[in-house]
Amino acid sequence: MSEAPTIRTNKIHWPILAGLSIAKLLIHFSTNTNYGLHRDEYLYLTQAEHLSWGYMEVPPMIAVIGKLSRLLFGETVFGARFFPALIGAVSILLIGFMVRDMGGKKWAQLLAGTAFLFSPAYLGSNTLFQPVSFNQFCWLLAAFFTVRIIRYGDPKYWYFLGIAAGVGFLTKYSIAFFFLALIIGFLISPHRQVFRTRYPWISLGVALLIALPNLYWQYDLDFPVVRHMQELSSTQLKNVSPLNFLVPQLLFHAAGSLVWIAGLAFLLRSEALRPYRLLGWTFIALITILLLLSGKDYYSIGAYSMLFAAGGIAWERWLGWRSALLIPIIILLNMPVIPYALPVLSIEKMKSYVTHMKDQYGLEAPLRWEDGSIRELPQDYADMHGWEEIPEKVARFYHSLPPEEQAGLMIVAGHYGQAGVMNFYRQKYDLPETYSLNSSFIMWAPERVEFDRIIQIDDVPQSASPYFESIQLIDSIESPYARDPGLIYYETRPKIDVSAGWKTLVENRREEAGY
């Protein structure tokens, strides 16, 4: 490995970084309860009640964090979204340290941290309780330790890099894309000679050791992640075109693109950051990999924080203290798009706002849903509305039934969002557990249940049932902003032995899922 560059170690400007981090927390704490939980958040919070080394969709880390969140804060929206906000604040500190290690001073730390703080993409990520926030942090952590490996030449940072890789793998499998790109970056750069030493291989061993329980879980269930990716490829990724992937890369951070583009250019062309040029090659390799695999546009977001660090240094080198003049420009230009990422407006005002922006300025990209269509609201916002209506209305009907009917009743949901919200608010509304044969819920559904009637929650209108003579529509989601109708049916008078039929259904569904 080449010798560590002789760059004087600058100081960390704590008032700047602490101020930006606190601002990040306050922004999220003051907005993250304006809308309800997202359908995916209900899934991850349910996983927290079924701790395992893996799930049908994701590795186990999000469930562990969800368990901690529920222990500390109970079943609250604020509690669910506390840790994503916290990890966003810590990210600003880490970016500041990364800037310092690469030779940046006060103005570089200020600009890089501000670009991250007002990035619509990171504001959106750090709002939701999803693996995304923690995955992006692991990418940043990996880039940070890579810089330290180059800057200080201390072997211990290889071990830390391995830990970041292993923990990142337990957080979201897409970190494999980043590390593949990072290896390519190393191979392109003069640092390739490091592979002749034992340290990268020890780092790989550390990562594999941490990931091993999940890898064994995947092996034992015949790799459900592969089936999940095949399903994504056939239903969602097929709608991703190169243009639809590349255009959002310029929109994710809005005016913050002035910083990351400068950072990428400075990494690739500047002598000052020549030792860290491999980060630039890593980014290019990552974008190429995702394009070739038809990855979703947001898969790349975790890579931009390291470019913000390089961009802060670039502008500081070019303009000195005047680089701070970019800050009000970034803030002002980002303000019109921040409502798309951060729930600062009421949903009524948000709908009017996005309609105005679409009609007057042609801003349609944030309204494109995963099926490729343009809708009236961003998909994530539609996915945050109407959910609690389901357990509230189910409870109203359930508690109106006589005890003998309650005793023989099972509640079944069509998909994980419906089952997740029912179980999240189960104690609040005093309801029995809701089962589903969708997503990870198939892992938790009991095979033997004695029942003779069900409450069925679904999005598909039903006029008849193969299992019950009587089917009655009880209620549905009334919110005009909800993505799904949330139809609630009451089905009685079995046509067959429904308990035996349920057992067969569970067995068949598990066989199909490979569980």
Concise structural overview:
This is Glycosyltransferase RgtA/B/C/D-like domain-containing protein. By secondary structure, the chain is mostly helical.
What would your notes on this structure say?
Helix content is 57%, strand content 6%. Mean pLDDT is 94; it is low at 1-7. The chain has helices at residues 14-29, 39-47, 61-73, 77-80, 82-101, 106-117, 120-125, 131-152, 156-169, 175-188, 199-220, 224-235, 242-251, 257-269, 277-292, 304-319, 326-334, 347-361, 379-382, 389-398, 403-407, 416-424, 426-429, 441-444, 498-513; strands spanning 409-413, 434-436, 453-458, 468-475, 487-494. The protein folds into three domains: 14-340, no CATH class; 347-382, no CATH class; 389-513, no CATH class. By secondary structure, it is mainly alpha-helical.
Q: Reading side by side through the largest sheet, how are the strands ordered?
A: 2-1-3-5-4
Largest sheet: 5 strands, mixed
Order of helices and strands: HHHHHHHHHHHHHHHHHHHHHEHHEHEEEH
Q: What is the overall pLDDT average?
A: 94
Name the beta content range: 5-15%
Domain unit count:
3
Query: Structural class per helix/strand content?
Result: mainly alpha
Q: Low-confidence segments, ≥5 residues, pLDDT <50?
A: 1-7
Question: Residue share in helices?
Answer: 55-70%
For the record, give the distance between the C-alpha atoms at the N and C termini, rounded to a whole number. 46 Å
Q: Outline, from the CA principal axes?
A: globular
